[in-house]
Request: fold
Amino acid sequence: MLKTLLRRAVAALGIPLLLGAVPAEARAPQAAHPALWEVADPDTTIYLFGTIHLLPDNYQWRTPKFDQAMASAQELVVETIVDDKNPQKLMQAMASIGFAQGLPPLAQRLSPARRPALAAAIKKSGMPPQALDKMKTWTAAIVLLGGRFKELGLSGGVEGVLRNDFSTKGKPVGELESNLEQLSYFDKLAEPAQRALLEGAIDDTGSMDAELGGMLRAWSSGDVHGIARTFDRDLSGTPELQQSLIRQRNANWSKWIEQRLDKPGAVLVAVGAGHLAGKDSVLEMLKKRGYKVRRLQ
Reply:
């Protein structure tokens, strides 16, 4: 299950990833109605929108209900800001913790049986093998996974569209975490867990396509329970990662929302759908603090 965690974390938990431009293909439009909630008091409204960070271009996820909420919001807050046109901040964060001296070559960190798949993934990525050898295992996994997602025709998802919309209208865009904070969750993993992530990043695209297709179906239909079951299964064997990647972050964000309710206005908070699903979700933490969470879509 850990092998699939990195793919799901990128898609629905918000781990930074630069994909660059992905050629558009002619595909039939796919209507989506992802989940949207509201937490409010007499002078503040906070909309909570579960996003997917990687999408095929043909998904039409903006609905009249969502557009109404977005228009009324005076501010957008996302997990972290990843700007494909200005990637220096993300690259600096990755460079600061993602490399180490004296590492064995990347191929030697996998079993002999997995090395041909690694070599194929490296060749498709266009990355010099010597550069990958200098990376920590989790860093190489994230870099190679970006190439696999491009093969599947996935590009930047919901957040980029939202940031562009708010910025164009002169509305502020904030973040809950820095790029460095998000990447640090993987830097804390033990080496065997990092190697499992690398194996997941070089799996054949057929298995990735089927797995992400299931996630897209759950997200586009607003199936919050389906999303929760997926992450519960993937994280069941790694309680330390479940604590740092899900529970602690959700606790931090629910406290931020609680504090933001003290300030008048309307805010759209857009975070990975995995953070708004399950018993440890941001929503459940807010409910335990006595706040009423109303589902709008």
Summary: The CA atoms of residues 59 and 125 lie 26 Å apart. The beta strands are 30-31, 36-41, 44-51, 54-55, 59-60, 75-78, 155-156, 173-175, 265-272, 293-295.
